[in-house]
Specification:
Blueprint lengths: L4 E3 L2 E5 L5 H13 L6 E6 L3 H16 L3 E7 L2 H10 L3 E7 L6 E8 L2 E2 L2 H10 L14 E3 L3 H12 L8 E5 L6 H10 L3 E5 L15 H12 L5 E5 L6 E3 L9 H11 L4 E5 L5 H4 L5 E5 L3 H14 L5 E4 L5 E3 L3 E2 L3 E2 L2 E5 L1 H13 L4 H6 L5 E7 L4 H13 L1 H7 L6 E5 L4 E5 L4 E8 L2 E9 L2 H18 L2
Parallel strand pairs: 3-4, 3-5, 4-8, 9-10, 9-11, 13-14, 13-15
Antiparallel strand pairs: 1-2, 2-6, 5-6, 6-7, 11-12, 15-16, 16-19, 17-18, 20-24, 21-22, 22-23, 23-24
């Protein structure tokens, strides 16, 4: 059973351990960070357990004297936008498939996702006993926040931005599926629903099953579709294919979005595809440790230090933060949380403006291919010891990487990332959740990246024996 845990991403617990007291202490601590905010927006994903927990969240908020705005199921970026526009706070409830029996709560302030300082305050404040009122002092209202989210992109991109594009919308158990089709249609595209799920079995954009990939390729290959799109269950990570049904990496979508907006600065994690280091039309790229919180923190610091910077942030899986007001048909205001629909719209709009297919647009980026694997059977302590030794000992590195060209650079921002002459990159990261050793390889061809991954899996196995 999953023990309750809290970090900057929110509160996670098994449904059986999410007691009224536990829920109350964390919500009470969160609301303490939202001084003078009277409204709290509450939404959820499509999981069956999320509906029950969302009701409990609303009752807890009202018992603490705050008004609740019930938003029904909605993508988390739409919820964050509603909180920003309404100068309120927000709580997103999400579940997992029944077999996993877990629930998560995400917290948003009027400025977006939690900062590290706010998360620390909540963790400390949750030690304070829960002190609800005996009556529900706060009120409750219902609001359709999807309309504001659709208007955000319709106003910015225009009703003809995606004209003559036929889009397959992969309708697994993603809470954004209907809103995504509505936005695409509003922007002029023809949206075709595909594989609508009737149960809660969300697909992972980074692990699409082979049979689903084959079907998407067949549909695109028959020229029925120009692209296939979707998001993860919360609407935070994008899924987009080219005209052949081949899915595009989230980090490539982030770069294309930055170009489309004429951004001058990117904040992303050190695990991002090496393409971001090879483009020459983005003035500055800041690399952070892995995790949305680090990217958000880097963006906020940059906004403070250089207010005129046109900065966006994204994770390797493609969730995009917008940190400046983009000048499109109408101003597109900042939204400092992961948005999976935004890079889909931006990439398709960029392709149409350039009169190119998605595949040709991606082909215009410098060639760089990435492979990744989590060696989950490796004890985290052994993983940390191996990476620590390689990070601090040049002789250990020479032995371990003896079959590579000379190292160009070494980066220890998060794990050990070594770039070699000729374009090869090997990145080793110890992981605690999920536990193991993550290995990432980058190269100038897909086959070379795969060969590097295979080779270094073997080297790691020998090194940790």
């Amino acid at each position: 059973m999953l023990a309750p845990a809290f970090d900057i991403c929110g509160l996670r617990a098994a449904t059986a351990t999410l007691t009224a007291d536990l829920l109350g202490r964390y919500i009470q601590a969160f609301l303490a960070t939202c001084a003078q905010r009277e409204e709290v927006f509450v939404s959820r994903d499509l999981s069956p357990c999320a509906a029950h927990v969302a009701r409990n969240v609303s009752m807890t908020v009202r018992a603490l004297g705050f008004d609740v705005v019930d938003c029904d199921p909605a993508p988390s970026p739409a919820l964050a936008l509603a909180a920003t526009q309404g100068s309120g706070c927000a709580i997103m409830v999400s579940g997992a498939p029944a077999a996993q029996d877990s629930i998560s709560l995400q917290f948003f302030t009027p400025s977006g996702a939690l900062t590290c300082a706010q998360a620390t305050d909540i963790a400390q404040g949750a030690n304070t006993p829960y002190a609800p009122s005996k009556t529900l002092r706060g009120g409750q209202d219902y609001r359709d926040i999807g309309a504001g989210y659709v208007a955000r992109y319709l106003n910015a991109f225009g009703s003809d931005a995606l004209t003559n594009i036929t889009v397959g919308v992969y309708e697994h158990a993603a809470v954004a599926r209907d809103l995504l089709s509505e936005i695409l249609t509003a922007l002029g595209a023809t949206a075709i629903p595909l594989l609508r799920a009737q149960d809660f079995s969300p697909a992972d954009p980074e692990a699409i099953p082979d049979d689903t990939r084959a079907l998407m390729a067949e549909l695109c290959g028959a020229r029925w579709l120009d692209t296939v799109v979707s998001t993860d269950s919360l609407g935070e990570r994008p899924l987009l294919s080219d005209e052949h049904g081949r899915f595009i990496g989230g980090d490539h979508l982030g770069v294309l979005t930055a170009r489309m907006l004429n951004a001058d600065t990117i904040c992303t994690s050190v695990a991002c595809n090496d393409v971001v280091r090879r483009i020459d039309d983005i003035a500055t790229v800041h690399f952070t440790p892995v995790g949305a919180a680090h990217i958000s923190a880097a963006m906020r610091k940059l906004q403070h230090d250089t207010p005129a910077a046109r900065v966006i942030g994204f994770e390797p899986n493609g969730g995009v933060f917008l940190g400046f007001t983009a000048d499109l048909r109408a101003p597109l205001t900042p939204l400092m949380t992961r948005d999976g629909i935004f890079p889909i719209i931006a990439t398709l709009a960029a392709a149409r403006l350039a009169r190119m297919s998605v595949g040709d647009l991606v082909a215009g980026l410098p060639p760089c291919f990435k492979q990744s694997d989590l060696m989950s059977h490796i004890d985290p302590a052994k993983a940390e010891r191996l990476v620590g030794d390689l990070s601090t000992s040049s002789s250990a590195r020479r032995t371990f990487f003896s079959d590579q060209n000379r190292a160009d650079s070494i980066d220890c921002t998060d794990g050990l990332r070594v770039s070699f002459e000729g374009g090869d990159v090997v990145h080793l990261r110890p992981c605690r959740r999920p536990a193991g050793l993550r290995i990432l390889t980058h190269a100038n061809s897909a086959q070379r990246a795969f060969d590097l991954l295979t080779a270094y899996r073997g080297k790691i196995e020998n090194a940790v024996k």
